[in-house]
Amino acid sequence: MGLWVIGHECGHQAFSDYPRLNDTIGFFLHTGMLAPYFSWKYSHRRHHSNTASLDNDESFVPKRKSSLNSSARILNTPPGRLFRLMILCTLGWLLYICFNVSGRKYEKFANHFDPKSPIYGDRERFQILLTDIGLLVTRYGLYKVALAQGFTWLVLIYFCPLVIIYGFLVVITWLHHTHRSLPHYDSSEWDWLRGALSTIDRDYGILNMVLHHITNTHVAHHLVFTIPHYHAMEATKAIKPILGEYYQFDDTPIIKAMWREATECFFVEADKGEDSLKGVYWFNNKI
Ligand SMILES: [Zn+2]
Predict the structure, then answer these.
(1) Which of 123, 168, 247, 277 is surrounded by the fewest CB atoms within 10 Å?
(2) What is the phi/psi pair of residue 64, to 5°?
């Protein structure tokens, strides 16, 4: 998890003052974990530039009530919820990088490995190719390790921890952006600061430390993404009194929070009521 966090910081140029050093370290760390370093760096950067925008955010874009399909009623039942959570924890990361599931809607198929993917601009395409080559080399290396040590060894020492890490990362990120109190905006109302403040810090108990406090410092991370994780607690402490009620925190135990958010945050719908706010959307689950 620490290696992942450092790779993420390299992508934000938060690891060192030297962009080339950041990209080199980040590339090796993430590629070694079978993550597409440059591809995700760019999509993640766009997530930071468009947080909580229903039209332009890159990941965990909630569905509008109007775009729900016939499976929605089934997925909105307790077994459906359990199914969604299980998929999120196990395949969530793969579904996102391979098929852009829950990502921004593009005119054509988008994924993190295709240099021609609509996620990327022309200047980024070469680095997507570089990412693919790095992943192929890693795969070949893993094949060689499997031949030397045995496949079971590789699964236990490498793939099992990887599955756990990606499971955690997806849950952590999803919970940072999914809560009844977090609004989403369409293009008429969205602006960067509103989006950055539409994030919430969580409390994972003892795991906060194990997860390098990415869990309870996400609001600060969205405001200033060049702060490295080892200063994020200090930064969070400093921004809390400035943000006041705009700082969002929920200490509900994580398993309970996962079930609650899967229940309550099924889709978003436009703000209602007498003084309804145009362009502002809230989570709901009443189909
Ligand atoms: Zn980030």
Answers:
(1) 123
(2) -80, 155
Q: Is residue 231 part of a domain?
A: no
Question: What is the CA(162)–ligand 1 centre distance, in A?
Answer: 19
Residue 14 lies in a domain: no
What tens digit of pLDDT does each residue of 179-220 get? 999 999 999 999 999 999 999 999 999 999 999 999 999 999
Q: Which of these, 228, 222, 168, lies nearest to 200 by C-alpha position?
A: 222
Q: How far is the CA of 211 from the centre of ligand 1 (A)?
A: 14
Residue 113 CA, ligand 1 centroid: distance in Å: 20
What digits encode the pLDDT tens for the residues 109-123?
A: 999 999 999 999 999
Q: Tell me how far the alpha carbon of residue 71 lies from the centroid of ligand 1, in angstroms.
A: 32
235 burial via Cβ count (<10 Å: 0-12, 13-18, 19+) = middle
- Residues of the domain holding 155: 34-200+248-284
- Give CA–CA dist 4/214, Å, rounded: 11
- Whether residue 28 is contained in a domain is answered as no
Quote the tokens at residue 175.
Answer: 């919970």
**Overall domain count for the chain:** 1
Please tell me what DSSP assigns to residue 156.
Answer: I
The conformation of residue 64, written as its DSSP 8-state character, comes to: B
